[in-house]
Each structure stands twice: as structure tokens, then as C-alpha cells.
Amino acid sequence: MSRYLRYLTPLLLFLLLAGLLYRGLSLDPKIVPSPLIGKPMPAFTLPRLADAGATISDTDLKGKVSALNIWATWCVSCRAEHEVLLELARTGKVDIYGLNYKDNRADAQRWLTQLGDPYIANAFDADGRTGIDWGVYGAPETFIMDKDGIIRHKHIGPLTREALEQEILPLIARLEAAQ
Amino acid sequence: MIPELGHFALILALCLSLVLAIMPMTGSLANIPRWVAMAKPAAWGQFFFTAIAFACLVNAFLSNDFSVAYVANHGNSLLPTVYKVSAVWGAHEGSLLLWALILSGWTIAVATLTSNLPAVMLARVLSVMGMISIGFMSFLLFTSNPFERVFPVPLEGGDLNPLLQDFGLAIHPPMLYMGYVGLSVAFSFAIAALIGGKLDATWARWSRPWTTVAWVFLTIGITLGSWWAYYELGWGGWWFWDPVENASFMPWLVATALIHSLAVTEKRGAFKRWTVLLSLMAFSLSLLGTFLVRSGVLTSVHSFAADPARGLFILIFLLIVIGGSLTLYAWRAPDVTSGGRFSTLSRETLLLGNNLLLVVITAFILLGTLAPLFYDAMGWGKISVGFPWFNTMFVIFTPLMVVLMGLGPMARWKHQAPAELLRTYRMALLASLAAGILVALPLLHDGSPWAGLAVFLSVWLVSSLLLSLRQRYRNRASIGKLLKNPAARGNGSYFGMVIAHLGVAVFIIGVTFVSLFEEEQDVRMSPGQSIDMAGYTFRFDGVRSVQGPNYRADQGTIVVTRAGKQEAQLTPEKRTYTVQTKPMTEAGINAGLMRDIYVSLGEGLGGGDWSLRLYYKPFVRWIWLGGLLIALGGLLAALDRRYRIGVRRYASTTAPASRKSLAPGA
Known about the structure:
The structure holds two protein chains of two kinds.
Chain A: H1 2-26, E1 45-47, E2 55-57, E3 66-71, H2 76-91, E4 95-101, H3 105-115, E5 121-125, H4 129-133, E6 141-145, E7 151-156, H5 161-177
Chain B: H1 2-30, H2 33-36, H3 39-62, H4 69-74, H5 81-86, H6 92-113, H7 119-143, H8 167-196, H9 201-232, H10 243-268, H11 272-295, H12 308-332, H13 347-377, H14 387-407, H15 418-440, H16 449-472, H17 476-484, H18 491-517, E1 519-525, E2 530-533, E3 536-547, E4 551-562, E5 565-570, E6 573-577, E7 583-586, E8 588-590, E9 595-606, E10 609-618, H19 621-638, H20 646-652
Antiparallel strand pairs in B: 1-10, 2-3, 3-4, 4-5, 4-6, 6-7, 8-9, 9-10
Helix pairs in contact in B: 1-3, 1-7, 3-6, 6-7, 6-8, 7-8, 7-12, 8-9, 8-11, 9-10, 9-19, 10-11, 10-13, 11-12, 13-14, 14-16, 15-16, 16-18, 18-19
């Protein structure tokens, strides 16, 4: 029997893999609802990207509607969404903060000088610890917080103009109108 | 009307693939020669109608027929003609149609180029290919019809993604698909052999040239993709470990293992079950790659529009093809006799060692690619796997593999005395160690242990190839024979091996040196300003507007000088395409064997100032040069005469597995 079992191994491994893939079909990585929505944002205190001596923390984001964008220079999709972020910044409707995720400080600074800087400030999360607290799956991701610092929306993957017009900007308007 | 013709031709092609899948196979099992004889005509018919369908889609793009939804989404009247054609495979539906066309093309290639194959074997091989074809044709027709009409008809098309408007990317997908689909031939041979219960040297000999050719295409496709990423994305990066890149790399690794283990099966009759399993795995991984790209279970820069219905379809298809073939394997493999015996140290064990390493690397890549999905499915949260995982794995396994690669070609089959091996390689070992240490120590320059390791491995590989050449041509007679008939049997596969292995040495140097010694600067420059880097002076001469056929561009001019002498004038561009207003970078590159100078244009900062990214990339060309050498080696091996003349002779005699080949290599 064990003789035959040996030749069944590839098949069994493949069936396990197929089960995983089947499960994967119902888990769209792009629209996974974050368990953090409706909860206060996870606390963090991190060095700033621009200046390792200064820090930035979650309290800096409170008191206004804010966005936190998780990005990195190694992330090709982040480059794709950068124009959209710049556009969002130009509307002046929301303060965009950045979480520079598992990146190299010099590279990230160069990125901003070269491509333009949509951010109010950037936190530098070299080892990705803060990213884990925020449930980051992979850059880019964008969170929208209300004035009390409660996470209201999570956008996974690169921001698009459609998402901006249909979801993000209306949401920001609603959050601004509240209270 | 023409799009409907295309649609109809596709339906006919599906009908013929049903005939091809059922009749010859049933005929071969029930011994009905007339059904067996249907294989070739059905294969031709399938190709004919698929080609018509493909031509209809090309025509729709060329004639700007925006009533076809696919053309309306991805075509545009302003597109240059070459990109109108390449737009056919610029998105999901059309690239699947290309897949189907290439599959039917490989099918008729097998049907016509294997006159020496017994009719029953050929019928089974073609039938299995027909079964695969059913899957793709019905996937096209039921979930992704490229000929769907749209109403009202848009006046203009949505245009091809500007990233894809590039010559490298126009030919990259066809090459890659030629490779992916080509592996279906090895797969079909393996299935046919399993059904017939005859896994022998003859089977390996038939399968070898096909596998090698598919592998060559895959090599070229991956190399092109990497080269494209380098010059088009504006980052100077050449590999991103993106799920889709991994999806092309995994079949390549397994196919690399396969071409080596096929050699052992052909020459020594050993590894039969392992070779069959690799044949099944290589194509299965191609299909898995298709699933990953099309289903949207993983996020990737290459992702096509995700559609769960499509994902489910491919998953069921995977279950049938891969699950079915592995079931057949589990059923038949226990009866396969194990072939030629060999001792602990022999060429067989060295090849087996490399095979295992290649499979282990593949497994690690698969794990890394699927880990985010696995974590998600288990409810353990989200993770991302990036460069550190994949690079670490490579640094661990590649050196081992290269050491074995050096030993393989000179080791004896069956049994190798360790002392003799050490004696043979004494000089190669000393030379490579010396070269490695010299580079590692800070004598000539700063010194770097990693560069030392890379140089050690490359010199080891090259010197072992030289040893092998010396052994093969140690006397006048053997050289004379080579000069008299360079295309003699066995020479192609031997020199193919030499060139491909040389390619690996070149590749290692390229990868290591560019990662270690590249220099880059991000700078703000005013017109007329100069900046020095890596011994070169970069002078920025400002930016002007230029108009392309379907884009407008800001074009910078940078003059690069070295010691007062002009080396290059570069014109990096930042393009805005008229329809899809994405900004695109076109890097300015001065290519050289020893270094690239690479400049990409950033943002205009006002007052004529621009941000620029300057790179000095030593040896970066060696990466693709290595890839091309590897492909060239494969091509030489596939063209070896013995596959053309020898096969016929082999087919008539019953393939003595122990027969000594003339060639000590490959």
C-alpha cells in the first residue's frame, strides 16, 4: 500500500493546492473588508521620512478628515497610483499622510522629489511593524479616517480616478459634513 | 460580418478539437485504425479555423471596427499599425485566442514533423493536445468571447495600455505563450506514454527536442520581459518577483530540470518516473500561471480584469487536466521498471542533485507566491512576500547548483571515483578559488565577498567547460572530425550545453555586479548644469516638447562625457498618451557591454529645472546576454542531427537504453 501511496503524493498535494485556490476565488484580495473599519486607528509613533530625528504619531492625524496611504518605492502599483494621489492632494479636500512601508529612506526621499510629493508628512516604517498593526496586505493601500480618528474606509490596491470620484471624494464630503 | 465569421470559425475549431480529443484516442484504445487516422486531419482543421478566427480579430483591429467590444476597449484608430496587431493580445480575450492559436500550431507541428512516430503514439499525443485545446476553446467561447459586439458603436477606441505600446512587449507575450504551450507537447508525450505503459528511452528521445524548443521560447520570453521592464518602467529594475513573473519562472525552472532528466532517461534509462512527473509538472505550472493571472486571486501589476467566473472555469479545467494526469501517474507509475543503476557519485546523481535543487527553488517560489493567499484563507491575516524571501532563497541554492553544474559534464555515467574527479578538477578549482578571493579582497577595488562568490562560480563554470572541451578534443583526430563535419550527430547538443552553461556564468556576473556596483542619483538639474557620477559627467541641456503619433512628450537632452570625450547623447522622454492619459517614462539609455548609462526624466520643477534620475549600471547587459546564450544553447541542442536522422533508426530498433552515445555532453 505504501508503495502506491508514494505515487499518489503529487495528486494529493495538487488537490490541497486546488482547495486553496478554490478558497482564493471567493477571497478577492482587492475588496477584503478590513476588520479595522469602524475602529479607532491603531496607535503608532514612527520617525518621519524626511527627518529621522522627528517623529509622527496617530495623534497627528486626528481632528480632521485624513487619509493614510501605504506605499513603497519597490511597489510598481504605487507608481501607478501616484498621479491620482497628487490629484487628490491638489483638491485640498483631505490631508494625505503616508506610511512608507518596508522601504529604504534614501530611495523614498528621491521618489518624492522626482515624482512630486502629495503628502503632508510621511511615517517611516522600516520593519513593517506598524504596517502589520494596520493589517497591510501589500502596498499600496489607502485608509480614510474621520475627525475622531476612526477608520471609515480602506482602499486596497492602487487608487484610480474612478475610485477617487465614486468612493473617496463622496466619503470625504460626508465625513466633513458630519458633526 | 467578419467578426461573426471569426466567432463561427472558433466554434468550428472547438468542434474539431472535440473530434481530435475523442476519436483518435478511442481508436487507439479500441484498435480502430480509421479513427486513429483522423488525428492529423482534425489537427489541421483545428489549426485552420483557429487561424481564421485569429485573422478576423486582427482584421477588426486593423480596420478600427469599434463595434467589436474588445477592439473598442483596447484599440484606437491612431495606434501605429504594429501596435494595432499587438493589441490583439494586449488584453484577456485576445491573448487567450493567441494561446489557442499557438496550441493548435504546436499540434500541427507535432503532426507533421514526427513522421517517424508510430501512428498510435502520434494519435494519442495529438488527442491529449486536443483535450487541452477543448479547455481553451470553450473558455474563450463561454466566458471570454473576443468577438462580442457593442451597441451603440463608439466613435473611437479606448486605446491599448501605453505600457504595452512598445516593440519588446509586442513580441514578449507570443514568445512566452510559445513556451507555455510548447510544454503541452512534453505533457502530451508523457500522458501518451503513460497510457501505452511504455516509458522508455524512445519516449524520452521523441520528447526531448520538443521540450527543448518550448524551453528556448520560454527563455526568450522571460528574457524579453525582463529587458522590457528595465527600459520601460523607468526604474532600471529588471525583475520584480511579481506573481506573474513567478508564474513564468516556475515552469522554466521545472522545464530546465526536465530537459536534463530527459537526457538521463534517454541515455541511461534511469529516472523514468521522475521525468514523467516533471513533464506533467512543467505544463501544470504553466496552467497554474494562467489561473493566477486570469482569476485575480493574487494582486499583480500584470493583472487582467479579475472575474471569479473565469477563475472558477480555469480551476475546474486545472482539476481535470492536472488532477487527471496525476491520477494517471499514480495508477501507472508503480508498474514502471526502474532503469539503469548508478552509484552515489556519478553523472546521474549530479544531474539528480541539480534536478532536486531546481524543484526545491520552484517550491519556494510557489510558496512565496501563494503565501499571501494561504494566510488569508487560513484567517491568519495578511502578509506580503517580497524581494527578501526570493533573493535569500536564490543566494542559498544557486551556488550549490552551479558547483554541481561544473561537475556534471565531466563526471562519468554510472560510477565516478571521487579521487579521479578531484584530480580532473584540480586546476579549475584552484583557478576559480583564486579569482574569487582576488575579487573578494580589497586589492583591486573596494572588495566584496558577494562579488567574489559570483566570480568564483563563473570562473568555476567556465573553466569546467574548458576542461570538458579539452577532454573532448584532446587529439588531432577528434578536432579533424569536428572540422570536417561540424553538424555531426551529438555536436549540436554538446555545444548547446557548453553555450547554455556559459550563459549561466555570464548571467551570474551580470546579476551580481549590477546589484553590487550600480550607482544612482536623483537630482534636480537646471539647463546647462553638469553632475559627475561614476566617472561620467552628465550635462542637462533642457527639455523640449515633441509630438508622437498618438502621444505628446517632454524630451530631455543629456550629454554624457567621460574625460572630456562625448560618450552619448541621451533623450529620455515623459509621454502623455492622447487617449489613456497616463504619463509614461521612456528612459534614455546608452547601452554597452561593460555598463549602461540610464537616465529617466522626472517632474518639471519650474524655471526649466527638472528632476532626473541618473544610473550607472555596470554589467547589466550580461543579464540578458546570459539569457540569450542560454536560449541559443537550447536551440543548438534542439537542432542536433540525431533527432532528425537518428530518431528514425531508433524507432525501428527497440531503443537499447544502454547504447553509448557519441557525445559525452548534454
